[in-house]
Amino acid sequence: MALLKKLFAAKDPLKLLRRAVVQQRWADVLREAEVIRRDGLSPELLEELQTTLEQAGNQLAEINLEEGEACLRGGQRDQALEHFQLAAEHARSESLRSLIRQRLEKSALVVREKTVSAQSAGDPCCASGCATAAESAPTTDHEMDVDSRLELSLTSYPSEMATRYLNTSDSFKQALLLAFTGAAEEALSAFDRIVEQERDDLYQFERGALLLRLGQTVQGRDCLQRALALNPRQTLAMETLVTLELAENQWENAERRLQQMLAAGISMPFCYSRLAELYAGKNDLVGAIGYAEQALASGPVELDILVLLSDCLEKTGRIEKAEAVLSALPGSGCGGGGAHVLLAEFWLRHGKSLPQALEAFKSASRQDPGNLRWPLRIAQTCLAQNRHKEGRDLLEKILCTPDLPADLRQEAEKNFSFYGK
């Protein structure tokens, strides 16, 4: 339930979005963007948000395109078609859309040969120019039904809860899908039409989470409390209340609830992760390290916890262990063989493995050409390798960029004042 936590920590509404980009968590970028209120953003932030969404969409499209092509090579035509449809939903650039349309037409025709005669080429397109999944796919067995769509949306839910959701009424499922696709007001109306007999803990939790996303905190909290009254082990309601308390700086209430959940054996990785964040927020680095390590030992955790653990270890002088934690992050580049950019930035800070760090930054710059962080890191790495002219020239070019973010400009100016002519 990290999204709800982020919703209330909005001094910099795009901070978490930027971090997800740095960590190449493209699906998280899109999920984070769903809860950002556009009406409160400046024109500059709106433009940055749009650019980031385009980048994330294209990256997800490319991933699904590659998966689809791999499935085709393996003779898995149905799976290939599903990946191409997902790619079509995410793609933003016209060149990528065109390539996906070609793959969609090819894979759809292969599937159709089994059932009906192939239709003529030239699938209709949506207003944005991309062939939609429904238009490009066969219209019978291969359409994604409500349960299939819901199952995909519930992948982050506990498995036993996901099973309960799949056994709910059609009206509840439709309301839930509206909520998952960002149609918040429409979803709320749909939830309000559900009959009283179906308003169990799942209903109360989902309606409460929806109200929180709409900024109706008091009403949302009431729904979460009702969910717990109906089911004292309602994991998602407990997690959401904790994140709400943390967001509102109710540290003692959050810690008390987390300790109660641990005592009951509920959601151990979540509890240890939140305690690690809580103690890091109090600048108790030793406590934060202890809880983060317990989180890792108890099961899968968010990438943020690995980063937090490494950061705390680095600040307490445990450099080798901090590096080992970052080394566990997924690599970048072709085949994932390169270093993660966070590991590369660690190396740059400590003057280690600079050639590998440089390659990681170059790879990140190719994947994300609009992000000036990577040219700056390339320049800094060149300077650290005593390639002063190359680094200075790149710094000068970066400093001439009018839309250079303030934090990067400050870094670049500091570097240039030290290494400049």
Task: Provide a concise account of the structure shown.
With 421 residues, the protein is an all-alpha fold. It has helices at 2-7, 15-22, 26-34, 43-73, 77-90, 94-112, 133-136, 146-153, 159-166, 170-180, 184-192, 201-213, 217-230, 235-247, 251-263, 268-281, 285-298, 303-315, 319-327, 341-350, 354-367, 373-384, 388-399, 406-419.
Descriptive report:
The N and C termini lie far apart (50 Å). The radius of gyration is 24 Å and the shape is globular. Residues 1-11 and 109-143 have low confidence and may be disordered. The chain has 24 helices and no strands. It is 69% helix and 0% strand. The protein is mostly helical and 421 residues long. α16 (268-281) runs parallel beside α18 (303-315).
Q: State the helicity in percent bands.
A: 55-70%
Strand content: under 5%
- What's the helix-strand series? HHHHHHHHHHHHHHHHHHHHHHHH
| Radius of gyration from CA coordinates | 24 Å
Tally the helices: 24
Largest sheet: none
Spans of at least 5 consecutive residues whose pLDDT stays below 50 are 1-11, 109-143
For this entry, give a set of tags.
421 residues; mainly alpha; 24 helices; globular; disordered N terminus
Break the fold down into its secondary structure elements and pairings.
Elements: H1 2-7, H2 15-22, H3 26-34, H4 43-73, H5 77-90, H6 94-112, H7 133-136, H8 146-153, H9 159-166, H10 170-180, H11 184-192, H12 201-213, H13 217-230, H14 235-247, H15 251-263, H16 268-281, H17 285-298, H18 303-315, H19 319-327, H20 341-350, H21 354-367, H22 373-384, H23 388-399, H24 406-419
